[in-house]
């Protein structure tokens, strides 16, 4: 059973200790300070680097918006809207590996075998390169993607809430 209860969920992924990889968490931090945080049918949560635990966060949802750092060979800070079904069908976007070495795509492929998945949309923010040293700093270029991500998230939820 999910620890979340709202039918629509926004989940931010990343590590706050790995610089640009934490940009999904930054988006969640900003969203939690908006009027969206008080909506009854919406959960906004920091999912960290939860790996297979993501399946619990999907359980019982109608729609899940995942915000994560990605490597898509585009300029740092670029924002991509990716349908979950496209990830499952082999779209070439590559979300960063979690500390458990599973991508969101890997977890979704496992999930479709063991449960009914909700509608999933990934808002991916290009980080350019993998961070290899611990830092809390997110580069200015990557931070530029935060506002665009929030705009896309608002579009996603405006049609259903």
Automatic annotation (TrEMBL):
Pfam family, one: HycI
Record SUPFAM superfamilies: HybD-like
UniProt keywords, alphabetically: Hydrolase, Protease
Protein name (record): Hydrogenase maturation protease
Tagged with keyword Protease: yes
Residues in the signal sequence: none
Keyword field contains Protease: yes
GO biological process terms, semicolon-separated: proteolysis
The species this protein was found in: Methanosarcina baikalica
Record InterPro entries: Pept_HybD-like_dom_sf, Peptidase_A31
């Amino acid at each position: 059973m999910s620890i979340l209860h709202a039918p629509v969920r926004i989940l931010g992924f990343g590590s706050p200790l790995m610089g640009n990889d934490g940009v999904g968490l930054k988006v969640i931090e900003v969203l939690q300070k908006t009027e969206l945080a008080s909506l009854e049918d919406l959960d906004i949560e920091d999912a960290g680097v939860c790996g297979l635990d993501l399946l619990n966060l999907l359980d019982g949802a109608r729609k899940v918006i995942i915000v994560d750092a990605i490597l898509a060979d585009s300029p740092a800070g670029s924002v991509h809207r990716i349908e979950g079904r496209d990830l499952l069908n082999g779209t070439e976007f590559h979300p960063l590996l979690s500390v458990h070495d599973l991508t969101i795509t890997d977890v979704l492929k496992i999930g479709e075998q063991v449960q009914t998945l909700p509608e999933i949309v990934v808002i991916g923010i290009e980080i350019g390169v993998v961070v290899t040293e611990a830092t809390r700093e997110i580069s200015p270029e990557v931070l530029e993607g935060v506002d665009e991500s929030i705009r896309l998230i608002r579009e996603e939820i405006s049609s259903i809430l």
